[in-house]
């Protein structure tokens, strides 16, 4: 518990995402310290500060389960690139020009942008950290921002220099994991915790994949990896890892578009989690998102933005994209099989809200702390202005949140009982300074690499 005063949000539409707690059209949420104390109707205020929730929708904090936050300063730069162009211009190009200060400002700005947009938790997949200084710059920024985060420690993917091994042949650095767990991540009872962003069998040799899976298991860390995007480095790697008993809870697959239905079924049964980034996957050429295939296998996906160099970081948009794509696939299948439109929707807006709250928390290993408005969990809460022009009137609150809401409707964001955004204003002393530093960083990197863009300004 903290010394944070008690707060009572009264008379709001409350979507708890906890079936045992339920939802309320005229509900209250009581926060005591950093915890949710009660959710219900007509709760006594006592000495708590009372916030009028009329015309507001209260939801659990949104979880962005997968984002390469270091790319915040490159916003929009890869919007017209396929995945192959992205590998060429970003991983083998732009990424190599990043200094620790660039990583810091991009991560700080990206994290603040997430809070502003209603995301209280970020899976920061940091794979542009060629030195410990780069890593520390990203970690410092996450702590400074006040966001809840799992820092997924990765490794860069440049072209090797003469005499150097290809990145696929380099195991995850144990010494760095040990250093981080002795230092900033010595405690797991804090807002920012550690995970691993490993290569996996798609992007590494079998020896490296095996070593990385074992490293994650040894330290009890979530191991997240990309799957898809060209030919696998180790064909049959997954089957060999399964045979060795290394595939199970704590393993997270991002994208997964090229996995077979049978593989997805086996992985779900083993406790593997999946993270889908629908807009990015459809745009760059990964393939259709596997949302429906995970659901058919008995699993539940989590979702992420992926890269702000390509798409918006608004998780409401991510959820809408996921829902629209899966409905389109299901509608098309019905037409081809029966010649008719389905009688009912295959996935609901409540499903989508669950994907970007509770399922994101579950993927990051945080479902016991966040993801729902459950008494005893930490108070990660978002208030949306439901009486804004684009949302009013509210007939089905879940549908209003998923189909109508945007960053502009986010009135307040609370993380562990502390407001990080209130009355529509981000709690940050000098946001304009952050923006200026971010722009200067991005322009320097682009200019240094000579990346072609559609527009040049005098300031660039």
Could you walk me through the main structural features you see in this protein, from its secondary elements to its overall organization?
This protein is an alpha/beta fold. It folds into 2 domains: 7-60 and 379-426, Urease, subunit C, domain 1; 62-361, Alpha-Beta Barrel (TIM Barrel), CATH 3.20.20. 35% of the residues lie in helices and 20% in strands. It has helices spanning 83-91, 100-116, 132-145, 174-182, 200-203, 206-219, 237-243, 261-270, 278-284, 291-296, 315-338, 349-355, 358-363, 397-404, 431-449; strands at residues 7-15, 23-32, 35-40, 49-52, 56-60, 62-67, 119-126, 148-153, 192-197, 223-227, 251-255, 273-276, 302-303, 381-385, 410-415, 418-422, 425-426. Strands 1, 2, 3, 4, 5, 14, 15, 16 and 17 form a 9-stranded mixed β-sheet that branches. Strand 15 (410-415) and strand 16 form a beta hairpin. The longest helix is centred in the last third of the chain and has 24 residues, at 315-338. The chain starts with 6 loop residues before the first strand and ends in an 11-residue tail after the last helix.
Q: Key terms for this structure?
A:
460 residues, alpha/beta, Urease, subunit C, domain 1, TIM Barrel, 2 domains, nine-stranded mixed β-sheet, 17 strands, globular
Radius of gyration: 22 Å
Discrete helix count:
15
Provide the structure class: alpha/beta
Overall domain count: 2
Q: What's the CATH H-level homologous superfamily of the largest domain? A: Metal-dependent hydrolases
C-alpha termini separation? 48 Å
State the share of residues found in helices, binned by percent. 25-40%
Shape-level CATH architecture of the largest domain: Alpha-Beta Barrel
Looking at the structure, the CATH topology of the largest domain is TIM Barrel
Q: Which residues sit in consecutive blocks of at least 5 with pLDDT less than 50?
A: 455-460
Proportion of residues in β-strands: 15-25%
Overall outline: globular
Rounded average pLDDT: 94
The first-level CATH class name of the largest domain: Alpha Beta
- Give a count of the beta strands, DSSP E runs of length 2 or more: 17
Largest sheet: 9 strands, mixed
């Amino acid at each position: 518990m903290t010394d944070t005063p008690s707060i009572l949000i009264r008379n709001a539409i409350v979507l708890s995402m906890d079936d045992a707690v339920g939802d309320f059209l005229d509900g209250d949420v009581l926060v005591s310290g950093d915890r949710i104390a009660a959710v219900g109707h007509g709760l006594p205020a006592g000495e708590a500060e009372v916030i009028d929730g009329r015309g507001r929708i209260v939801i659990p904090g949104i979880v962005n389960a997968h984002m390469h936050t270091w790319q915040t300063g490159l916003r929009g730069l890869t919007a017209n690139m396929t995945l192959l162009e992205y590998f060429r211009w970003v991983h083998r190009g732009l990424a190599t020009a990043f200094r620790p200060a660039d990583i810091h400002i991009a991560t700080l700005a990206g994290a603040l942008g997430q809070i502003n947009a209603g995301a209280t938790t970020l899976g920061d997949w940091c794979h542009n950290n060629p030195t410990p200084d780069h890593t520390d710059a990203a970690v410092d920024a996450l702590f400074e921002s006040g966001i809840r985060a799992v820092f997924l420690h990765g490794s860069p993917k440049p072209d090797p220099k003469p005499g150097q091994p290809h990145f696929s042949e380099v195991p995850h650095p144990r010494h760095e994991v040990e250093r981080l767990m002795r230092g900033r991540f010595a405690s797991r009872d804090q807002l920012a915790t550690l995970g691993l962003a490993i290569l996996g069998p798609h992007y590494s040799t079998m020896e490296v994949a095996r070593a990385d899976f074992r490293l994650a298991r040894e330290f009890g860390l979530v191991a997240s990896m990309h799957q898809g995007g060209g030919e696998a480095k180790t064909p049959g790697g997954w089957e060999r890892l399964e045979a060795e008993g290394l595939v199970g809870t704590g393993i997270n697959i991002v994208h997964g578009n090229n996995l077979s239905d049978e593989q997805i079924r086996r992985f779900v049964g083993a406790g593997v989690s999946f993270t889908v980034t629908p807009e990015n996957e459809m745009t760059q050429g990964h393939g259709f998102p596997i949302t429906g295939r995970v659901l058919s296998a008995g699993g539940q996906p989590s979702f992420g933005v992926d890269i702000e160099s390509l798409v918006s970081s608004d998780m409401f948009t991510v959820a809408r994209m996921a829902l629209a794509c899966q409905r389109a696939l299901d509608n098309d299948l019905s037409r081809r099989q029966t010649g008719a439109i389905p009688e009912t929707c295959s996935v609901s807006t409540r499903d989508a809200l669950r994907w970007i709250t509770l399922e994101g928390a579950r993927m990051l290993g945080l479902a016991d702390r966040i993801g729902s408005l459950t008494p005893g969990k930490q108070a990660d809460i978002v208030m949306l202005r439901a009486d804004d022009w684009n949302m009013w009137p509210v007939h089905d609150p879940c549908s209003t949140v998923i189909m109508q809401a945007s960053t502009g409707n986010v009135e307040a964001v609370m993380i562990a009982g502390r407001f990080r955004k209130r009355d529509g204003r981000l709690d940050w002393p000098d946001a304009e300074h952050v923006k200026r530093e971010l722009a200067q960083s991005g322009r320097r990197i682009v200019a240094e690499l000579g990346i072609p863009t559609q527009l040049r300004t005098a300031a660039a």
